[in-house]
Request: fold
Amino acid sequence: MSEAPISRHARIVNALMLREMNTRFGREGIGFVWIIAEPLLFCFGVLALWTLTKPAYEHGIRLAPFVMTGYMCVILTRHFIQQAASALQANMGLLHHRDISPTHIFIARALLEFIGATAAFVVVYVVLLTLGQVELPHNYLLVYGGWLLLAWVSQGFALILAGLAMMFDVVERIVPVLTYILIPISGAFSMVAWIPSEYRDTYLLIPFAHGIEMLRAGVFGEFVKTYYDPVYALIVGTSMVLIGLLLITIGRSRIDVE
Reply:
């Protein structure tokens, strides 16, 4: 009996994830734990720096949960983009195998980054909760929904960059610059409510802001004003995913795997 298509694809993605973990983190030392430890170190470092240089509250919002939600969102977005941009170039030899497609490689990397960033977010939250710096989320569904929405939008943007990188070498070189540009415009370290009302609707055309605002609405509760439209962000994210897959299909024909 032949293997079901879904089972076959799941087996391929799982094998690619295991291979990716061994390639990037090795079998010695802390291994895969580093994918969680790295964002933890950066998040606590940024939090410590902001604690020393800024007041305990920013626009009436407590510093620790604000920095935590912002920086973990930056980690999620940046890792999606960086890993997707170099995914095929780093795994070119795998395309010799008939059963492995570029989509398998991108899905494997995306799942690996999502699991790592999510685990890091949970650990950071638990540590700060234990220290009394944050409270339990006021709405868990908004937290989950915002995190997943941000991941979807980030993946769509990452796939577009990956497809362009397959056709133009210069794109991969400017990806680090783009990730830094996203930090101030994504809403990670600002709130939409802080933006003057006449510019707010224009700013909300940026799809990343909606997932972050939605997540913060779940963390802070109704007493902190947030602005988000999950339907708009979902439509834009889905459109970017489809465009990205189309670009990857076009770029795939231009890659020599011999």
User: Anything to note?
Assistant: The longest helix spans residues 102-130.
